[in-house]
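EI: anyone free to look at a 384-residue chain?
SC: sure, send it
EI:
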Amino acid sequence: MGEPGDPRWTASDFVRRVGDDVPVVLGADPCTPQELVGLLVAHVARRVAEREGEPPAHVVLSHPPGWGPHARALVHAALRDAGLARVTLLPEPLAVAADHAENHRARAGLLAVLGVGSHATTSALVRLAPNVEHELLAWSEEADRWAGADLDDLVFAHVAAELGGLDPAQPHLLPAVARLRRDCESAKRVLSGVPVTAVPVHLPDGRVDVELTRERFEELARPGVELAVRGLERLCRGHRPDAIALVGGTARTPLLASAVAAAVPGRLVLAAAPEACAVRGAALAGRRLLLGPDTGPDHGETSVLVHGDDPSLRFPVGQLAWDDAESAAPPPRPPVEITPLDLPTPLSVKRVVRRGLAPIGRSRRGGRSERDPRHRTRHDEDGR
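SC: here you go
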């Protein structure tokens, strides 16, 4: 979250730092990780309310399995300060298990989960149970060892070497380097479906395309992939999973699937949108909370992340952001009685962190309300 193109005002991977006393610094202002989590979830809730025409009845937030009672309490407090009180926290492996049980009719058995995110790799064993809560038997999280961001760095290093050296510290190259890092991530994903792609490099004197083949990419990625698979193999030692679920954007990499199939016995399961498994599972858990355990299945595809079956369309190299105008508008909804969602006034991240992320309705110094009409115009003009 933050302002694109300016690393001083951009924060990433703060979710796994919840409870850490070291703050996240945006510009010159320190922010706790849980404050940023609260601001981010409130933003998502606003977008949902705008899109669906009604506020969410409940929020289910999936989180790393390493969060203990202290971290969960901090996040609950941050979410209450952001105007969200009806929130359930659910460990990511259990959210993945809920999605797996729904989509694969798995009502019992042992599920192994390997999640490769941007900054951490998680292995977990979950016991599926019919009509009751699934049980998290064991898990291990290997942060700062190998994850999707490391693959992005390898692609970036390959491109820089092909160009004869690219110094990311040179001030006049900062915009080009920031854009190149996003294109390297896109190229990594595109190679899940095509044998070769080109990474565009937008230098001050013109654009240069650097070719990258899947064979070369897998050569770069193999040591890290094997490290992640060994972690899952250790966790499954003495157990034979009925199924193995690969989740996270890096799960699309064919090398990861083949390495897991060769090392861990069990039926390999790869969802159509593996980066959204925990999100769908959290939504299913929320439906169960609201409507009860006997709710009938709903197998319609609702993920807004899926833009087509062609990986080159889903993750276009060189595109900076999705254009919402390109997506089809949702079908008209029947008239409903809309209850306004009491959420924070939209603020830019820069303005929020400068004000110290004061709780909604009062300033941290005990001053006037954020909803004071005398201040509303200033915030609305700058709010995003």
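EI: The longest helix spans residues 214-235.
SC: 👍
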